[in-house]
Every structure is written in structure tokens, then in C-alpha cells.
Amino acid sequence: MDKQIGGCNMKIGEFAKQFGVPKDTVRFYIKNNLLIPNDQGAQYEFTDREVQAMQTILKMKAQRFTLEEIGRYLMLRRVSVMVEPESLKLASDLLTGKRQALQKEIEELNDICKSIDADLLSLSNISDAPRKKTGVPLKAFSLLVCPRCGAPLQMGGAALDQRYIYSGELLCDCGFQILIENGIVKTGNLYTTPYDRPDLQRGFYQKISREFSAYTQRSTNYLIHALSGMDLKDKVVFEGHCNGFCFIYNHLKKLEPGAIYILTDKYPEMMEMYKANIERMGLDLDILYIADNSTHLPLRPQCIDVMIDFLTSNEHSLYFKTPYSQDIKPFLKPGASIMGQNLSYPENSATIRALRKKYPEGDCSAYLFRCWNADYKRMGVQVEAKLLGTVKTTEKSYFFECHKDGEELCVRYFTGKYLPA
Fold first, then answer.
1. Is 50 helix (H, G, I), strand (E, B) or coil?
2. Higher per-residue confidence, 6 vs 389
3. How far is CA 111 from CA 99, 102, 121, 242, in A?
4. CB 165, CB 180: distance < 8 Å
5. Angle at CA of residue 224, ends 219 and 227, nearest 5°
6. DSSP state of 145
């Protein structure tokens, strides 16, 4: 519907105000010959002719006409009185052509909407799909020992089948007790201080910058390539501190089904979440979930063949004073492969000081590349690190809240082998 505007001989400011547009917009239309006001004096003067032209411009813009098409229509109006058969045909052809183009677009949009509906249905089917219930793999039971004395554990009151233990107790003669609940090993060591929380909504993934995400994907590409070149059948692949980032969870479909995968975190809720989501994937994998907030995991010494440290050292250094490499060392087989991603900031930077203030339980040493590298070297790992790039600005969430813009966050992919002296 045309906007009814009265008055004539208006200046540009009044004209723009009448139509609710900036003066720069009016000047743009003048520059492109859509409006042709009187300019015999020092200022433009807008008459009823420009009012009608502006009404036509706004109406045709709403009808999805381009400025070029609007210009052709206005030119036709200016050079005719719109009663000539030729003029009426030209105007009719212009309007008909636009209507046909819009009708085609509507059909294309309807097809797109149908495609989106199919995607939504597919997502709904995934969400509603029955879970393939799993538990502690029987083939992984021999990996579990008492974290207090190292003795083998005895199983009691277990609900199990030929492949999994779903619930029960793991008992040691020294008196230590571990529960298996919903197929998850729970030591009872709970994290209760206020410096972290379970990321059940996986907000960390949703709030990282595109630049950081791209470097992380490059690390992932390297890591998947390295793992695909290994024979992982009957090997133990381990990843800890899965609250912050969990490589194994994100890429299970690309990993060897014959291996035993171990995921650990200090929050039982995180293990419950990962387990439920993985069960929805319906994968035929052996995964041992351990909920434990300590450096003394209920695992047999020297049982890990491959350790994934995908920001794990970084996460560990926020909550523990001892290096992750030192705490995980007892569980690594000689010759074990270690690989992943590490983040570091400049030494004595404002970001490091902010991290230590926000996370007083740890020492944040893994965010100092020199310290992190030296810790691995002391345990017998010669790290080969590749700098993928640096990030100077990050989304201010999680530990990135401490990042002072302008200071370089270095992202590295690394590999190494545990070769004790």
C-alpha cells in the first residue's frame, strides 16, 4: 500500500523524515537517478513528483524489485503517461517477469523447506533411537586394580552378560571398594570445589572462536591420520579429563573397533552423558568409563598403549600442582605413543596471571610450553611439536575468560613415545 505523504517543495531533511529514511539514502537515490528533485538553487527541493517516486521506490523494494528494475519502471513513468499500449506492455512485462521469478523462488524455497524438514526428521530419529546398552567390557576387567594397594579386585553382586558388567561392586582385601553403576566405574572420589563444573551442554565447543576451531580441526586431522596408521587391535587407548575436550568421543566412528578405549573424568555426570550419547551411536566398541577425581586411577600399571593428550595436560594443570605427565606415567607401557594438542601463552603474561588467579588449585604450568615440554622430557618422552598457529583474540568463556586480547595463544599438535631410561 502506498504511504500517503502530503506537502510539496520540501528540503531533503524534511523529505527524508516524512519517509522515515536517512538523508544519505535519499542522496543515494538521487545519485542513481531514482529521484530527480529540483536543484536550481543551493539545495534540493522535493515536490509531489518526488513524493510519488519515493512511494513507488519503497513499494517496489518491498516487492523484491532490484534498484535497476525500479529505475527502469520510473523511467517508463517519466517518458510516458502510461496509457500507450507500448508503455503498458513494458510495465506489464516488468511486473509479470518479477512475479514469475518470485513464484520460482517460492517453489525453490518450498523444496528447501522440505529438505530441512527431512533433516529435522533425521535428527529426531537419532534422538529417539533406542540406545545400545553397554557396560564395563569384560575384556577390560583385568585392567582394573585397587588404586590404594594395586591388588586385583574381586567382583560382587554383579549384573552382567557375556560382554559387559552393568552394575556391581569391586572389592579389595585392603578394604577399598569401587562401584559399577550403569556400566560406569565410580571410585567415589568426587570433585567438590567451586573452580569447575560439568560441561553437560558441551558449551566449550559452542563458544570457541572460528580461528581456534580451525587449528583444532587441523590437530584432529593429524591425530586421526596417526591413529589410522597404527594396529590398535587389543590395544588400550586412553584419554583423561574429558570434561574440557574429548577427542575419542568426537571421533569414535573413525577409530579401530578392536581396541579398548578408556575415558575418565572427575565428574560422574560427564561419564553418564558421554556413555548415553555413545550408546545412541550404536557402535560396536569396548569403552571403559571411569569417574574419578584423583591422580590414582584404578588401573593396572603399564597398561596404556596410546595416550591422547588433547588439551588434557592443560586441563590437569588448572586443578593439580603436579604435571599430568608425571601423574599418568605409572600407567604407560614402555614404548607407548603419546599425541594430542597443547595450548600455551607467553611466560609472565597477564593471561597466565589471570589463569592462576581463577584456578588457584593448579599451577597452569602446561600453559607454558617450556615447562610442559620439560615435564614430558623428564618422564622419558621426546616431544615433536608442530606450531599450527597463534590466536590473539578468543571468545571470553571457560578458561578463555583469562585470555588478554593481543597476547598470543599458541596452538600445537604433538607426538611422542614413552621411552623410560
1. helix
2. 389
3. 18, 14, 15, 41
4. yes
5. 125
6. B
Whole-angstrom Cα distance, residue 325 to residue 317? 10
The 3-state DSSP class for residue 155 equals strand
The x, y and z cell numbers of residue 413, run together, are 599438535
Assigned C-alpha cell, 158: 554383579
339-358 tens-digit pLDDT: 999 999 999 999 999 999 99
* Distance (Å, whole) CA 121 – CA 173: 53
Sequence-separated (6 or more) residues with CB below 8 Å from residue 337: 226, 230, 305, 306, 307, 415, 416, 417, 418
Can you read off the three cell numbers belonging to residue 22? 536517512
Cα-Cα end-to-end distance for the chain: 85
Query: What are the distances in angstroms from CA 135 to CA 123, 127, 184?
Result: 25, 21, 7
Measured CA angle at 143 (ends 419, 223), to 5 deg: 50
Burial 22-40 (b: 16+ CB within 10 A, else e): eeeebeebbeeebbebeee
For residues 289 and 272, what is the distance between their CA atoms, to the nearest angstrom? 9
* Cα dihedral value 320, 326, 327, 330, nearest 10: -170
Q: Which three cell numbers stand for residue 343?
A: 595450548
Q: Give the amino acid at 15.
A: F
| pLDDT cut 90: percent of the chain above it | 81
| Cα–Cα distance for residue pair 56/58, rounded to 1 Å | 6
Handedness of CA 205, 208, 209, 211 (dihedral sign): negative
- Find the DSSP H helices in 143-288: 203-206, 210-228, 247-250, 268-281
Is the alpha carbon torsion for 59, 65, 66, 71 positive or negative? negative
Taking 50 as the threshold, does the pLDDT of residue 119 lie above it? yes
The three-point CA angle 201-207-209 to 5° equals 150
E-only strand ranges, 225-359: 236-239, 260-265, 286-291, 304-310, 332-344
Q: What is the mean pLDDT of the chain?
A: 92
Question: Do the Cβ atoms of 178 and 184 come closer than 8 Å?
Answer: no
Q: Please check the confidence at residue 2 and state whether its pLDDT lies above 50.
A: no
CA dist., res. 176 & res. 319, Å (int): 25
pLDDT band, residue 1 (cuts 50/70/90): very low
How far apart are alpha carbons 302 and 299 in whole angstroms?
9
Task: Say what the pLDDT of residue 8 is.
Answer: 65
